[in-house]
Structures are given as C-alpha cells and as structure tokens.
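In response to a reviewer's request, we include the raw inputs and outputs for one of the modeled complexes. The two entities were modeled together in a single run.
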Amino acid sequence: MERLTIVTGHYGSGKTTFALNYACDLAAAGRPVTIVDLDIVNPYFRTADHRAMLEERGVTVVMPPYANTNLDLPGLSAQIYGAFEKEGDVIIDVGGDDAGATALGRFHRSIEQRGYDMLCVINARRNLTAEPEQAAALLAEIEQASRLKTTALVNNTHLKQLTTPETVLASLPFAAEVSRLTGLPVRYTTAPKALAAQLSGIENLYPVEPFVLTPWGT
Amino acid sequence: MAEKVLMKGNEALAEAAIAAGCRHFFGYPITPQTEVAAYMSKRMPKIGGTYLQAESEVAAINMVYGASSAGMRVMTSSSSPGISLKSEGISYLAGADLPALIINVQRGGPGLGGIQPSQSDYWQATRATGHGDFHILVFAPSTVQEMVDLVSEAFDLGDQYRMPAMILSDGMLGQMMEPVVLPEASDKPLPEKPWATNGTRGGRPHNIINSLYITPAELEQLVFERFKKYDEIKEKHQKAECYLTDDAEIVVVAYGASSRIARSAVNTAREQGIKAGLIRPITLWPFPDKAIKAAVPTAKQILCVEMSMGQMVDDVRLAVNGAKPVSFYGRTGGVIPTPAEVLDQIKKLGGVE
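The model returned the following structure tokens for the whole complex.
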C-alpha cells in the first residue's frame, strides 16, 4: 500500500534522522519515495541538508525554496500539493513542536483525503519532553496545530554519540507510559545500526543510520 | 552525576541562566538565536521570572540597563545585527558599571548578512561593543556543555567586577544538539549589590546609576580606575584549553565552533605523524595571551582558524609578537571550514604535501 507518513515531534527529538532512514529504507526496497521537508522553524540540521544523499538513493526531495540559503523566509513550495498526488510513498518531515506543525494544518484536507499515518517521535533523553506527561502534552499540542491525529509513536531515544544499548533499554518504560497516556501504539523503537545486534530482543526494533552530523563529524 | 539530556545550544544557554539565578530576560527574536528567547518565554512564567519581548533590540538592552540598575541578575540575547543595535546600550552599561549578560549567537555579516553561522563579530565583541574606552568580558564556549558552564561564570564575574559579560556563540553551536548535564539551580545567594537603586528604605543615602560626567577630569579618573580593574582581570581571569601543545610544532589557535573543526584536523595530523596541537581560547576578553606565549618555544608555525576573514588572528599576532610566523585560514559569510581544509593548511605549514 502506498503510504503518506507524517513525522512530528519535539524539535531535537530525532524526527529528521528517522524520516531520512525511513525514506532510504523504503527506496532500498524498490518503492518510489518522496520526502517533503516541511520545516519552517529550524534554520539548520534539516532534511534539505541531505538532498544529494537522498537523490542518490532514488528519493525525490521537496523542500522549501529558501531552505539552506541566507534568506530567513518560511515559504512553502507549491510542489507540496503535488506531492500528495504522487505515486508511491510520501514522507513529510514536519518542523518541531506545535509551531512547526502549524505549517501542516493548511494541508490537512489534502492529507485527510489521501489517508495518512502520523508518527510522533519521542525521546526519553530530550530535555523538556523527557517525562511521559510532557511528551504526551506536546503530542496533543501538535495534533491541535496540525488538525490531524497521531496514529503511532516512534521511540527514538538516543544521546547522540553517547548512545549505548542501556540508553535504549532504559527508555522502554518511558515509551510504554507515553503509549498508555495517549492510547497510541509504539510502532518502532530505534537504535543506532551499530548497536542493533545487541538490542535484537526489542520488539519492532528499527535500526537507524545517524545521518545528521556536525561539520566535525559527530 | 546527574543524567545527561539532549539540548540545543540555545536552550542550554537559557536553562543555564535560569539555574544561575537569572529571572529577567529582555529580548527580541532573530535567527539563529530565537530558541534562547523561545525557551525563556516558556520557562520564566513558570518560575516567577520576567520574559519580555521588547519592541526592538534597543528597547531590550535599555530594559536590561534598568533591571541591572535595580540590582537584578538580568540578560538579553541576540544575533549579530541585533547586537549592533544594542551597542549603544552596552556602552551605557559599561559607563554606569552595570553587570548584565549579553548573548551573541553570531551569523554572517556585515549588514543583514545571512542566517548561517559565523565568527565575524570577534572585533566587535573584544574591541568595540559600543563607543568609548571600555571592555566587556567575552566567553567563547565550544560545546553545549561548556555553554552551560560558562553562563554562571559570566554572571558571577560580571557581578564581581560590575561590568557587562558576553557569551560569544555562533549559529552552529546555538542550533546543534548535544548531550549535557543540566546545571543544578545554584543555592548560593546572589552577591549583595549595595550600589543598586532598589529603594533606600529611609536608611541609606540615594544611589545614583549614571554614565554622564560633567567634568573631563572626573571622567578621566573613572576610566583610569576601570582600566586598573581591566588589568586585574587580564592577570587573573584568562582561560584557554591547550590540547596536545606540549610538543606541538604546528600550533592551531581556534575558538568556538571552528575549534571543533580544528581539533578534528589536529587529531588527523597527529595520526599522520605531524606534531600539531590546538590552543582554544575560552575567554576572548581577556585574551589568553599567556597560553599562546607558552606554546611559542616549541612552535615552528602558528595557524589561526576562524569563521571570518581573520579577526582573532590580530590578538594571536600581538601575543606571539613576531617570535614565530603566524598564518590564517578562514571561511566567512556563513560557510564553515571543513576538517580537511584545515588539515591541508597544517600539512602545508608542516612541509608535508
């Protein structure tokens, strides 16, 4: 089935990392994939940074026309409407928090028409949403701003280069509690690819490549 | 030790200020600094503090002047063009001997420039954050953790010496996420400020906060005294990190985000057998000339790396004082040098092609 997957969450929780991996994995499985960078909040560290890598892997990239330029213009491309009608899978990487999700709200009719899957990325080590209640409250704010309903959680708990198997294991009760508070299933628990073998006991483990790096490579 | 959490540099600056007892923030949004203000707007109302988005940067810095006059621990934050707007107010703060924390998350300039990271406000921060004979304390963190650690130091030293302090960050550090140990709320009481205009309660003479002096001799005397204080600070409060400099023949000098790139290049150079090291100034004013001078004897070449056309390199040259050749490599306008580019420079200076 062709899917429209919307990736939301607290900024800095790892939405872009998950969205990039998801797009690359679907493309690797031979599916036509389009990724939409809908972030009008964040000036740096965004899906648009990875355009060359994505295109090399056969992923079509739709991004705000001024992303990664010196213009601080939160304009959205008309191509976004086209993306909803595209053949194949479409992934939308939404800007952080309710502010970022506001941009999604204007497309809610087109999105509802097509049918969608809205994932909320949570991270037990992300300041201000590290408590299950905080993560659930932000999820509600994002739903209100986007006028859409979350369908599942992605537990993307990590500490960047300091992530250990324990970091991931210790986050499972957090994810379970957010799931209980919101009534939503945990679709995936992510882990860096290098640690995946040690975490094979986790249900729905989703190994990810840490694509989002600083200029000095961490 | 407390558990590490992920924070964006800008958020960490704000949280660290709250932990250091700051309850008054006046600012105005500008990319790539806005998360400092956004974070404050969420947190300050919950802890009984003041978050106020002023009508402009000029208004914000003058609100800082008012709050500092009343003895409050106060801050503002902005990015390059906004700091230029604040510069008159910063000069007034310095002229009235008022402490305040000013954060500059630098972006490309001059003019509106751009929103990508830059280090081209070094001269402004260390030479002329406003008109007149004065200095402010300038701190240059290079990690999100160090942002947290330097904020309380900047507040404390500013209070101790009654002068403004700046955290000179850049868009890269401000926007990136790193694991940090959050600062614990300080339980030591904030220093007494017997000079503050916070009410005489009928018991003491009026305090006056002012930067206008009628007679030249009086103003000159005051500036002399301030410069005595600056000499003491230069003696006591220089800070730098020296990394692999003990036997370094190629000494790289870099601060902030570019020091992260330089460190990566130094590590690769070492792997290739080149004796490279890094001096990372942590205070930019006072400039850590003692650390630079200490590295001169083993050094054959000194290389300054910045995200500018070469500003800190002036201070490096003053410290080296002609003893060894000093060269410069930089990118500007929001372009970030790569570790490979810096490594190339190190190899050239080391005579390795």
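As requested, we also summarize the result in words. The domain at 4-236 of chain B is CATH 3.40.50.970 (Rossmann fold). Chain B has two domains: 4-236, 240-349.
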